[in-house]
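Researcher: Re-running this chain for the archive, since the previous output was lost when a drive failed. Same request as before.
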Amino acid sequence: MDNPTSEESIERLLQLSDRVFRELLPIVPQQLLEMDLTMPQLKVVLLLFLNGSMRMSALASSLGVTLATATGIIDRLVEHSLVIRQSSPDDRRVVLCQLSDKGQKLTGGLWQTARQRARRLLEAVDPSRLKLIGQALEALSEAGVMAKKEDNQPPQP
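Model: Regenerated structure tokens:
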């Protein structure tokens, strides 16, 4: 198979990315287990970390739950001091949720742990191959921006 099809190439890359993620993840799950959060609460924390401040209705939609269920999840996260809930300055009927300092510290710590693990993996790569990895990551990032434009979603920072 000298010239793999695009589908075969994509499948090979997905298999490789699975292997890379398995190398990156061993540290993170222990931290997640220590968080004492339910899966819906963890999903909200991760959504807020990735998207910043979000409307309560957008959180409910992202989770696929009712507004009342999302409100209950947020109530518990507020009790844990992980989330701050406030009214929109433009429209007091709109409830905005964002991570508190404690929530930012928690998710930032997870992010940093994953970054440190990725750094160790990259440091083990031959320097001549780092440029290739950088080019591949740039291509994926550009594809992500294009996909979001097609989906009418705002790009992530």
